[in-house]
Every structure is written in structure tokens, then in C-alpha cells.
Amino acid sequence: MYISEIEIFDFRNFQSTKDENDEAKGCTIEFTDGVNVIIGHNNSGKSNLIKALDLVLNFGGSKKLEVDDFNKNMTIADLINEPPKVKISLSFSESENEEEFSDDLVTASTWLTKLNSPYSAKLTYIFYLPQKEHDEYKKEMQLIASDDIENYWLAIKHQFLRKYTSKIYSGNPEYKNVVDSETSKKIDYQFLDAIRDVNRDLFTGKNTLLREVIDFFIDYDIKNDAKIEKKEQQKQIAKKRKDFTEEAKKLIKQLQTRMESGKKEMLSYASDTGASFEKSEPDFEGHILDTELYSALKLIVKHETGITIPATHNGLGYNNLIYISLLLAKMQKDASGDYLGSNSKTFPILAIEEPEAHLHPAMQYKFLKFLYENNKEKAKQIFITTHSPNITAAVNLDNIICFNRDDKGKLNVAYLGKVFGTTETDSKAYVQRFLDATKSDMLFSKKVVLVEGITEQLLLPVFANYENKSFEDEHISVINIGGRYFKHFLKLFDSEKPNTINKKITCITDLDPVYTIDDDTKNEKCYPFEKRDDLVEFKECSNSLVDDYAESKHPNIRSFSQQKGVGKTFEYAIAFENLQTEVFIGEKIANKVELKKLIDEYNKGKTLDELLTIFSSRGSENNRIKNAISASGIDTEEKKKHLIASRYLNSLTKGENAYELAQILQTNLEKDNPVGFKTPTYIKQAINWICE
Prior knowledge:
This protein is α/β, with parallel strands linked by helices.
């Protein structure tokens, strides 16, 4: 059995809606059987989801809510008409390959909503104002007569919240069958919040957690030996306890002998103060059980050198892992029918909030790997909330649930594993493989810009600054996907399809014009000025993405590229539109002297022929450019721009020059009188669109 779904009505930032029949519908989130990793930007509802689970499953916890736990996106008319309430329903489903008449089915027998296999069950938490209080409530609300909604919430807080009550119903909530205490005790819900003091919660046997774990695992070699029958196990453990008690008696005897003389002096005060009377006087005796000595044990860390240090001297992250391991050991203990009999838990659930708060990336990865490999043994279902791209990169797409809220606060829940159909296994495998810690950032940011390479990734935020925009303020991530692999990643964000992440996506891509010389020749990359009469075909754009996601073609995805017939690549556009300055010519660029001279002579109004004499004739590529420029039928002024842009493009080593150019342009922008630099037109359009 596993929790397959939660439906939340008006709890914190989970707002219910009305369907076509005016019936209330809550926010529904589906879960997988096993590990569930919930991600999303701040205030998207991740922590509130864990709290909602806690309200239903943690039967030992408080069920009382505060006024701020209600969803406050209500009108005054709503509050006057009906008192607010919170409702949280958990749906359970039969696990794959679950044994017939399993312990899970027995536990959920009174929760069932569907008897046939695969069975279904439900638990529903409701926090509400009893019906008998409704008349008084409406009367008081109508008397407020204010346009300030906060006055109505204050009245609820001070006059009616104390009258609210909570119930947990099993099965169909309409039948109002309160869950029975016996089956509720079978659920073991453990929650680790992001802010926790593990040094307070463990490390000595006085602590309840450590005592319980030690008591379960003491004599584990006997308890866990399947070759020994239960009665024989009990007999052997009883003998060990007896032997321990006999040895302990010797210790007590030694202690009493050492105290004999001092005891007489110490207890003489009892006679003087009158504590001894009617022939009675204080004395000392004692015995020690093995369980009483647990408090003498302290958790230490022992290094291979033999040095030991108290666990309290560890780093917080290391101690958190120790704490979690002990908690999992406790869950194993609580699920042991041999140890606890009918009091054992049958449905252990572990919820962890932001494990990255105390773990560095390598430890995060190892921790997630451990949970994957051991979740069925220690916890039947695990829920993790995180902001960490490292954790997201370490888990399968099928286990990721992504929360995203639009500007109006509406929640979009995406299930990354369900985005890809049965015929799209290649795309799913590609995204899974390349969704590393860097690219995973696209799942957390509010908006995303996808680019082909490192140059665009480094320069886009700088160009945004040139346009008086800030990607940081807008929570925009620029993701380098390393080529033309947009189609795989875009499937995650296609809002026209179910289970996707509905956020604004900009693709910045190159036109990459190509030509075909003859019928036997494949498309070859070329320059935009190389259109000739003898070509079989000339494509001013070889990139289908440019047209597929052009303006108004898709609700949340838009592609931007250079002007057709003029553009080629990102770097080409930088030079083509900025020949009024040489600021973009860095010191590490090959041919920088020639390039600066070309730009200088261009700005002096030199002719094309004069520029061609400066343009190097070394190499076949340079001669190809010169010949194509000369033969081209485009405007002479445009030829000059293409000549310099093509020379600039072929002088770059992308990675190193990208870092230098980003630094140059940012430094220029910070000057009191910066040199005039123009953001390429299509980049400016992309920045304005994503920042709208």
C-alpha cells in the first residue's frame, strides 16, 4: 500500500476551486510508490505539503490550526457566507506485487473505498466550525460591516477559532466514520524539518531515540539469526541478561564495600537531624539492569588511527546523517512484530525537509542513493522537499514532482517522468542523463532561457544589464544545453500537454544557414552572403526551432534568432551590429590587430576593395569568404559588415573568448562613460519578452 494522492482544500497556499457543478475541488498532488522528491521555487508550497501530510498521518501530533493556516484568498462575501475550513484527503492504493491479505490491507481495512484489487482507501482530515455555531458566526460577521477583510479574520481568530474542532475520517468522508485508534497506531510518520538540533536529540543513552535503538539492537546476533527458533532466541537472551545481572551484583558489592566506612559517617547526620526514627535508618542497596546502563553509553566517532572524539564535536551535516540513520533504525524497530508484537507499525513513512540544509553536494548524492536502495526496508514511502539541484540531479525523473506558481499564485504541479510518452524514451533518457546539478536549475527558477553554448550563457545576463534588466531579480536561469538539443528539454515545459512545468521559456538559437552544391552533397554550413545561382538549394535557416516557436506559435515557449538572410551565429551578430566600436575585440582574440584595423578603416568610410586588401588571404576559409563577398549581389555596405563579422567569427576560440568578452562588457557598463555597445537585436527582443 502507498499514498497515491493528496487533495488539499484551503490549507495555507493551497486554494480550492469550483468545478462546473459548483463543487469544491482541492489542489491534487499525485505520488509514486517509493521516493517522492518535491521541488519548486520559494513559497511554492513544498513545506505546506509536508505539513498537510503530518496533519493526517501524525496521530500523536497536534491537529489544532491557527487562523493563518487557512487559505486567505477569500472575499469578504465568502467569509460572511460560510466559516472557512481546511480539508485534507489522502488516497491510498494497492502496491504492485503486494501480497494478498497483507498487513497493509489489514491496516487499511476500515479505510477502504474500493474492495476489489487493486484496492483503494482514504483518510480525511477536517478542521471546521461545528454546525451549531454557524448561526452565531454569520450574525457576528454581518455586524462587522467593514471593507477591510482583515477585520473579519481577526473576529474569527478571537471569537471562533477556539470553537473549531478537527476530525480524521476513514473511508468515504461523507459517512463521517472517525478513524479508529488501533489502525491509526499502525502508521509511523517520521518528519525531519530543515531546522533541527541533532546535538540535542541524540548522542547519549539518556536520549529516548538512542535508548530505543540500543534496546532493539542489543543481542542482535541472536535476534536476527533465522536458524535459531524464537523460543531458543528468548532463552539465550534471558541467559545473557542473567549473566549480566550476576556480574553487576559483584560491582554493586564492590561499591558497597568501598562505601562502608564513609557510609557510617554520612548517615550519622540522619540520626542528628531526626531522619532516623522508630528503629529505622537510611541505607544503600542497588542492582543494575542492562537497560539502565544505556545512559552510560555515549556516541563517539572512532577514526582508523584509534583516536575517538565525541559525536557532538562533529560537523552539523555529519551528525544529521548519523541522526537520520538512527531514525531509520528506530523505524525498523517499530516495524518489528517479533519485538513489539501487535504494537508494531506496519506503514512507516519518512518525510525530510531540505536535507541540503546540512549536507554538501557529495553527501547529498550519497544520502539519496542510500534512500533509493533501502526505502522499502526502512520506510515504505519517502517524501523529500528540496531546493537543491544536486539532489534533483541524483534522482530519477519518475520521482520528481515540481511545484510552480504563476504570477497570480495559481499552482501548477508537474510530474517529470510522465511528460515523456512511451515513444519518447530517447528524450527521457537524454534529459535524465544531462539534468546535472547545473541544468537542474531550470526546474527551480521562475523563468528559463535555453542557449546553445557557453558564450550565450555567460553573456546573456550581461546583455540584460545593458537593457536595464536583471535576470537575478526576475529569477531567470540561463541554461547551456550544449548544442541544438532544445526539443528534449522543451518537452518538460510544453504547457499544451499534461504533467509539464508551465513557466516561460525562451530559446536563443542560431540560424546556421546551409547550402547544397549538387544532388549528392549534404547540406553544408555557409555564410548568409553565399547564395549563388549554381546552388541546388540555399537555406537561410537550417534550424526548425526558429519557425516552430516563433511569435504567437506557443503560449509559453518562444524562440529568438538572427534576422534571416543576414544572421549566422551569436558571435556573428555581435560583430555585425557593433562595427561602430572595437570594445568587443579582446586581447585573447586571434587576429585582433587585423580586426581592429578593419573596424577602424570601416568607420573611416573605406571601400570594400580597400577592406579586402586588409583582410588576410591566408587559408582556404579566408579566400572562400573574400570570393563569396565579391561575388555576392547584396548591398556593398552590407558586404563590408559581413566581411568583418565573418573574420571575427573565425578568430574565436569560444570558451576562453566568452569569459573575456563577458568581463570586458560588464566592466565597460560600470564605467561613468561607457563605450557605446548594442545588444544584438534578437537578443534584446528575447530579454524583453522573458522579462515581461
